[in-house]
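Progress note, sequence design subtask.
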C-alpha cells in the first residue's frame, strides 16, 4: 500500500483547541485509560482540556503544541522541563490519535519540534523516554537522529505493573550533523511552523 504524503504541522496550543482535543481524546478513551492512566475522566472533557492548556501556557518551562494534519488536530506534542540554566535542555513527549498512526505524522512532528527547540529556543539537548515495548515511538525518534542512551528499569507504573523505559537524547550538534547527512533533514520534513 502506498500512502500519499500528508501535510503535517505543529502549532502552539490555544484555549480554542479544547473542544477538538476533548473529542479526539474521547475517541481514544479506552486506550488512554490503560496507557495513560494519569489522564482521568476530566482529561476527556473540554473544560479539562481548557485547564490543561491554560496551565501549559502559564508554565515558563513548557511549550505545548497540537499536531495538525491538513489543519485538523491529530495529536499533541510538548517540550517540558525546559531548562535555561547550564543544562539548556528539554524533554519531549507526544501522542497521536490512533487513526493517524503509521503515516509518519509523529516522525514529522518531532522533526519540527526539534528544529524549534534547537534553532528557535537555542537549547542544546532534548531527552525522550519511551515504553520499552513501543517500537513505533523508538523509530520516530531514531528517524530524527535521537540515540538510545539507556534503559530505566521500573520507570512508570501503568495499569498494575511497572514498565521499563528507554531513554533517548539528541544534542544540537548531533542533530545538525544528522540533518546534513540525511536528504530531507529532520527539521525539514512535513510542513507547518511552530
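Output:
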Amino acid at each position: 500500500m502506498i500512502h500519499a504524503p500528508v501535510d503535517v504541522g505543529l502549532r502552539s496550543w490555544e484555549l480554542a483547541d479544547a473542544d477538538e482535543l476533548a473529542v479526539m481524546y474521547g475517541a481514544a478513551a479506552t486506550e488512554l485509560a490503560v496507557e495513560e492512566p494519569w489522564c482521568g475522566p476530566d482529561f476527556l472533557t473540554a473544560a479539562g482540556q481548557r485547564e490543561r492548556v491554560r496551565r501549559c501556557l502559564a508554565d515558563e518551562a513548557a511549550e505545548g503544541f497540537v499536531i495538525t494534519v491538513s489543519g485538523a488536530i491529530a495529536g499533541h506534542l510538548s517540550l517540558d522541563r525546559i531548562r535555561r540554566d547550564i543544562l539548556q535542555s528539554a524533554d519531549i513527549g507526544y501522542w497521536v490519535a490512533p487513526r493517524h498512526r503509521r503515516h509518519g505524522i509523529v516522525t514529522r512532528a518531532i522533526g519540527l519540534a526539534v528544529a524549534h527547540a534547537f534553532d528557535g529556543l537555542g537549547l542544546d539537548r532534548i531527552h525522550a523516554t519511551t515504553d520499552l515495548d513501543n517500537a513505533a515511538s523508538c523509530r520516530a525518534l531514531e528517524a530524527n537522529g535521537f540515540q538510545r542512551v539507556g534503559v530505566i528499569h521500573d520507570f512508570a507504573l501503568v495499569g498494575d505493573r511497572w514498565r521499563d523505559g528507554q531513554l533517548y537524547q539528541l544534542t544540537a550538534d548531533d542533530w545538525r550533523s544528522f540533518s546534513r547527512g540525511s536528504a530531507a533533514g529532520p527539521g525539514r520534513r512535513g510542513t507547518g511552523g511552530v
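Helices lie at 18-27, 29-35, 46-58, 105-120, 135-142, 172-181. Work on this subtask will continue into the next period as scheduled.
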